[in-house]
């Protein structure tokens, strides 16, 4: 999947503190490919990667994460932003609030109408009324009746009527008189956009003045979904999009394309034929899906939380003045431990894998390092220059390690300190240090 590809393209850059022009170009090629695979329109994919490039080149990579992972996060956040950033709720103003459902035949309008009624009834405590306005296929009315019965929501229909506009008007009047507070109008679709369908649905719109016009689109139709969305929007000026059939192989690229082209929020996603399988649309979750990633984003966020603290700023100063000492080292270790399971995190930290190669990674991984440091006196920790031969011998026996082990740690510590000082502006935590070991 994409996140693996991204990591691979960054393999050579472990320990690099900044995202550079070269690795950005490489990665963005992968991103663009993945977007195209996910059915994102070519132009949109290109604009998107141009934007990410700008952001990535300016970004300071947290030392706790690999540039590749940072890159994934930038891509992820930008994807979510493109899809609207935050969730947009359905508008239920009006008594009743009237919702018109439109889209091509087979896109999932009738199924969605049922799901929405179920959602509003069970999650929002509403009393919905479903309205069958597809008068062309007798089976369509029957289908809605069956769905309505299964979720306990009444269905308004007019036997033998061929006038969907009249049905819609009568339904709203019926809802008013009977106290239904949401009216969901399921309409007829055609296999392709045509004038008759557009005229009809526009007339229904004018007759009942809905608060919400939801455009339903099959996410598996890929690029076509975008063209259809544009045509419906030009005629209907809909208020939101519903993506259906996300339970298939589709990666949801349509969500990105549609949002970029019509600039209307996606409000629901539907995945499955069960009445319960409807979700309010969350841009971040769709970004996860498009990227096909696990929880790298949350790992990066955890790392950010832990390192982006006052502590880190203080440390930074110390490093600049070459005052970084073993107490700081200890506190960095405990910060890393706080971040959670070391097994998760070891892979995120440049150099950690190498260092812990032969260790069964758990919280014991730092034990001997900690033991050595704890065997130092406070003065020695503050001032590692004090550590002469006899002190080192004492520390080795006190910590249950050997003199070569103590020497090795001290040598690494010294080197790291030098390097940290050299890169004031960058090095501020143990991850950097580990990366150098
Ligand atoms: P309409 O013509 O727009 O009213 O579409 P329908 O609601 O009748 O749905 C067309 C077909 O797609 C039916 O067989 C539905 O069961 C199926 N369908 C609708 N929504 C979904 C979905 O989210 N996932 C899957 N797998 N099938 C769906
Ligand atoms: Mg239908």
Automatic annotation (TrEMBL):
<dbReference type="GO" id="GO:0048500">
    <property type="term" value="C:signal recognition particle"/>
</dbReference>
<comment type="similarity">
    <text>Belongs to the GTP-binding SRP family. SRP54 subfamily.</text>
</comment>
<dbReference type="GO" id="GO:0008312">
    <property type="term" value="F:7S RNA binding"/>
</dbReference>
<dbReference type="GO" id="GO:0006614">
    <property type="term" value="P:SRP-dependent cotranslational protein targeting to membrane"/>
</dbReference>
<keyword id="KW-0687">Ribonucleoprotein</keyword>
<comment type="function">
    <text>Involved in targeting and insertion of nascent membrane proteins into the cytoplasmic membrane. Binds to the hydrophobic signal sequence of the ribosome-nascent chain (RNC) as it emerges from the ribosomes. The SRP-RNC complex is then targeted to the cytoplasmic membrane where it interacts with the SRP receptor FtsY.</text>
</comment>
<keyword id="KW-0547">Nucleotide-binding</keyword>
<keyword id="KW-0733">Signal recognition particle</keyword>
<dbReference type="InterPro" id="IPR004780">
    <property type="entry name" value="SRP"/>
</dbReference>
<feature type="binding site">
    <location>
        <begin position="244"/>
        <end position="247"/>
    </location>
    <ligand>
        <name>GTP</name>
    </ligand>
</feature>
<dbReference type="Pfam" id="PF00448">
    <property type="entry name" value="SRP54"/>
</dbReference>
<dbReference type="InterPro" id="IPR027417">
    <property type="entry name" value="P-loop_NTPase"/>
</dbReference>
<dbReference type="Pfam" id="PF02881">
    <property type="entry name" value="SRP54_N"/>
</dbReference>
<dbReference type="InterPro" id="IPR013822">
    <property type="entry name" value="Signal_recog_particl_SRP54_hlx"/>
</dbReference>
<dbReference type="GO" id="GO:0005525">
    <property type="term" value="F:GTP binding"/>
</dbReference>
<dbReference type="InterPro" id="IPR036891">
    <property type="entry name" value="Signal_recog_part_SRP54_M_sf"/>
</dbReference>
<keyword id="KW-0342">GTP-binding</keyword>
<dbReference type="InterPro" id="IPR004125">
    <property type="entry name" value="Signal_recog_particle_SRP54_M"/>
</dbReference>
<dbReference type="InterPro" id="IPR042101">
    <property type="entry name" value="SRP54_N_sf"/>
</dbReference>
<feature type="domain" description="SRP54-type proteins GTP-binding">
    <location>
        <begin position="265"/>
        <end position="278"/>
    </location>
</feature>
<protein>
    <recommendedName>
        <fullName>Signal recognition particle protein</fullName>
        <ecNumber>3.6.5.4</ecNumber>
    </recommendedName>
</protein>
<keyword id="KW-0694">RNA-binding</keyword>
<keyword id="KW-0378">Hydrolase</keyword>
<feature type="binding site">
    <location>
        <begin position="103"/>
        <end position="110"/>
    </location>
    <ligand>
        <name>GTP</name>
    </ligand>
</feature>
<dbReference type="GO" id="GO:0003924">
    <property type="term" value="F:GTPase activity"/>
</dbReference>
<dbReference type="Pfam" id="PF02978">
    <property type="entry name" value="SRP_SPB"/>
</dbReference>
<feature type="binding site">
    <location>
        <begin position="186"/>
        <end position="190"/>
    </location>
    <ligand>
        <name>GTP</name>
    </ligand>
</feature>
<dbReference type="InterPro" id="IPR022941">
    <property type="entry name" value="SRP54"/>
</dbReference>
<keyword id="KW-0963">Cytoplasm</keyword>
<dbReference type="InterPro" id="IPR003593">
    <property type="entry name" value="AAA+_ATPase"/>
</dbReference>
<dbReference type="InterPro" id="IPR000897">
    <property type="entry name" value="SRP54_GTPase_dom"/>
</dbReference>
<comment type="subunit">
    <text>Part of the signal recognition particle protein translocation system, which is composed of SRP and FtsY.</text>
</comment>
């Amino acid at each position: 999947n994409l996140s693996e590809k991204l990591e691979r393209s960054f393999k050579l850059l472990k320990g690099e503190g900044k995202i550079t022009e070269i690795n950005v170009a490489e990665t963005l090629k992968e991103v663009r490919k993945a977007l195209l695979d996910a059915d994102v329109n070519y132009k949109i994919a290109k604009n998107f990667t141009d934007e990410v490039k700008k952001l990535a080149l300016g970004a300071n990579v947290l030392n706790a994460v690999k540039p590749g992972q940072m890159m994934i996060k930038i891509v992820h956040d930008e994807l979510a932003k493109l899809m609207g950033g935050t969730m947009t709720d359905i508008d239920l103003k009006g008594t009743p609030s009237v919702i018109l459902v439109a889209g091509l035949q087979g896109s999932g309008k009738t199924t969605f109408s049922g799901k929405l009624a179920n959602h509003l009834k069970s999650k929002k405590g509403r009393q919905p009324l479903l309205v069958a306005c597809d008068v062309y296929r007798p089976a369509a009315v029957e289908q809605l009746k069956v769905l309505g019965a299964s979720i306990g929501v009444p269905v308004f229909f007019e036997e033998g009527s061929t006038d969907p506009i009249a049905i819609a008007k009568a339904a709203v009047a019926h809802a008013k008189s009977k106290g239904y507070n949401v009216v969901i109008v399921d309409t007829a679709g055609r296999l392709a956009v045509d004038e008759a369908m557009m005229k009809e649905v526009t007339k229904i719109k004018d007759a009942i003045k809905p608060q919400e016009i939801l455009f339903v689109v099959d996410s598996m139709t890929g690029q076509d979904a975008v063209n259809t969305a544009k045509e419906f929007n030009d005629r209907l000026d809909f208020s939101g999009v519903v993506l259906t059939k996300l339970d298939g192989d589709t990666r949801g690229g349509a969500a990105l394309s549609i949002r970029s082209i019509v600039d209307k929020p996606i409000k629901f996603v539907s995945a499955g034929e069960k009445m319960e399988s409807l979700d309010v649309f969350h841009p971040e979750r769709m970004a996860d899906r498009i990227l096909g990633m696990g929880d790298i984003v949350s790992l990066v966020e955890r790392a950010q939380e832990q390192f982006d603290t006052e502590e880190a700023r203080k440390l930074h100063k110390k490093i600049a003045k070459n005052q970084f000492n073993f107490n700081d080292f200890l506190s960095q270790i405990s910060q890393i431990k706080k971040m959670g399971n070391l097994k998760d995190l070891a892979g995120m930290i440049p150099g950690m894998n190498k260092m812990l190669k032969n260790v069964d990674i758990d919280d014991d991984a730092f034990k001997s390092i900690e033991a050595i440091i704890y065997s130092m006196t406070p003065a020695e920790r503050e001032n590692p220059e004090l550590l002469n031969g006899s002190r080192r011998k004492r520390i080795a026996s006190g910590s249950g390690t050997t003199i070569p082990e103590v020497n090795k740690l001290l040598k690494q510590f010294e080197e790291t300190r030098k390097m940290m000082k050299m890169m004031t502006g960058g090095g501020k935590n143990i991850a950097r240090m580990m990366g150098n070991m």
